[in-house]
Amino acid sequence: MVPELGHFALIIALVIAIVLGTVPIVGAARGNAILMSVAKPAGQGFFVFMAMAYACLAWSFLADDFSVLNVASNSNSSLPMAYKFAASWGSHEGSLLLWTLMLSCWTLAVTAFSKHLPDDMVARVLGVMGLVGVGFLLFMLLTSNPFDRILPGAADGRDLNPLLQDPGMVIHPPMLYMGYVGFSVAFAFAIAALLGGRMDAAWARWSRPWTTVAWIFLTLGIAIGSWWAYYELGWGGWWFWDPVENASFLPWLVGTALIHSLAVTEKRGSFKSWTVLLAIAAFSLSLLGTFLVRSGVLTSVHAFATDPRRGVFILALLVIVIGSSLALFAWRAPKVGLGGSFGLLSKESLLLTNNVLLSVAAGSVLLGTLYPLFLDALGLGKISVGPPYFDSVFVPLMVPILFLMAVGPITRWKNQELRPLVRRLSAVLAAAVVLGVAAPFLADKLTPMMVLSMSLAFWVFLATAFGIVDRVRAANGKPGAIPMSYWGMQLAHAGVGVFVVGVAMVNGSQTTADLKMKVGDTANVAGFDYRFDGINEIDGPNYIAARGTLTVTKDGEPVTTLHPEKRIYRVQQMPMTEAAIDTHITHDLYVSLGEAVDQDTWIVRIFHKPFVVWIWGGCGLMALGGLLAAMDRRYRKLAARDAAAQSNAPTQAGGTASLRPAPGSQGA
Amino acid sequence: MMRFIWPLAIFLALVGFLAVGLNLNPREVPSPLIDKPAPAFSLPVLHAPDQTLTQNDLKGQVWLLNVWASWCVSCRQEHPLLVELAQANVVPIYGLNYKDERNAGMQWLSDHGDPYTASIMDADGRTGIEYGVYGVPETFVIDKQGVIRHKHIGPITREALEGKLLPMVRELNAS
Question: Pick from A156, A431, A614, A652: CA 20 to 30 A from residue A467's CA?
């Protein structure tokens, strides 16, 4: 009964989404206020029925309804409750439902936070989101219904993939999807702007907080996924350049470019068509990621069970959504003006460079990801593209980005004299290089790569601090007078520096040892002594495990006791390693169990990973910075002003070109 | 104004590749041995170690070479299909008992059934290397002239058997 209710709710949601995707857009084109007013209630209805459908699926999982194919394939009666719930998005069908639920959440959020927006804008934005919803609901109902039954029902389920039975996996997909789907709002704003011919500072200002919030979710989602890979896969890596990881990284790169480009469009009215293109690209790449994971065109560890019919459907969906947006772009963008001019050296030019570099980086990651497919499609052979390609392409692009990232915030809009800038920053640069050489020297890892990365990290830290001091001084020593978005930007930039330190230290100075250890053996890895005290069998809820005990000491002083596990999950008979990690701010001690050689001898893998938590800490700071920026009071204050201006000048479909730079435009 | 059309053009080119990609299987790794003579071997027979079998003994018929081992978990998955195929008497199946111990191998066959006309012992895995074996099980289709015509990696599924292997055997037998 409940699964049928869920199925029915999906059908109603589809009907509402069709209404949402057509009526308000027609209304906006004709200036018909009644048709436009359908948008908000329809958007809310879309959410209500999606939430109902999802609740039905979650209930089926929690209540062990194994007559639902999806439940029987991905859950088991002995699975812990939290994982039964997480299993509801563990499959292709369930994750699509989650995707669409999140789209409806974002739609609801737009209906709630759009009081200050002109009616035609709201109608178009919600309408575009409704159209995206129609595509995904059709996809689900026609090819991937999460409520399909098997009759007679199964006695018990085949269990959730053990890799996914982990707290990290419970939060990683929802975070990531919130990010992916969140870019649909920026996308909808861009399409609405193209349709309405309205691409002004106000439009950019409305888009900015939405884009930033989506970017925060995506940042956290990727970071959690990377952290999960680090502790769950047992080989101590944190990024593998797997096609599906790249699929999440591509929208992140373009989204980051979009955030910076929107700043210019809001403050200076420039880059308008470029900003629109980035907004379309960020969401298109999210959709492309969805296609890559589900169609089986690439080999990846993450791929869902694939089915060519689904592949054809998603490809058609991509063509319709992305193709029509790009066609609209080609048609309408030439009419968009150019905006304010700027000098060769200015905040605009630096942000433009940032945009170009991030886009080139995204392009080269996309190329590397799809290259095996290109060659195969052209009949030129089978290859795989791995980390050597990505490292050698990506690193050179990141160096100028990091260098300019520290310069941008202290550069003026419009035009910046070179000489004062050099005068102010040369001491900072010199200090960064000195520290960048000294740090690896003290750690006894003096390599060119290490010096380069550490110098860049110190450069980011010092120039950020310098910029803040300068800014506080300009605000007459009152930090409270500086807008929140400024602090957010600087915090996010510092987060990038923290991230760089983590990556440089792990890549440059980690220690790895693969050892055959007998009970009682002691091994010294990077100054720590690990004594192997034996293995005992333990019984988990749905697995059995061999649990090792290693006592770690440093110079005779006890440090910690680590318990790595090797689990066998009963239903799927799949072995899993659970690494034991002792995390400190300056290093991680990481132990994972390999195979048993005999009764008391095991292969043990021990890592010493300096500063590895800085990688995820840096991502956390970036996300926190994004949060501060999104919370800036200015968005609400100026939104109220825009609304007042709108009520004086009633709805017009023509292009209004109000390009006043907002007050306080120093801090983008 | 042309520059605004570029994104659309690039996207459409990408779609073309993705559409072609949908019909390709990225997991299918072609074997360089296809349409090449089967590498030579001379190995003892599992059930009669004093006899040896060479690839020349098998010429004149279409046959399957199935790489298996008692330690191989996924071999158990395909084994019932092989037993069924042997009973149907369509094509002789020869087993390459790969990096295994003789007793363990014989025990395994008596437990799970023996579909093989004969199994040969490749204890040190040399012949496996010659055949480019990188995972067990693997199955080769070899024609009357002793040329490898197809290689199946991983456990045989009913789909693969009926859709690819058997039609191929029939075609080769007819020629």
Answer: A614
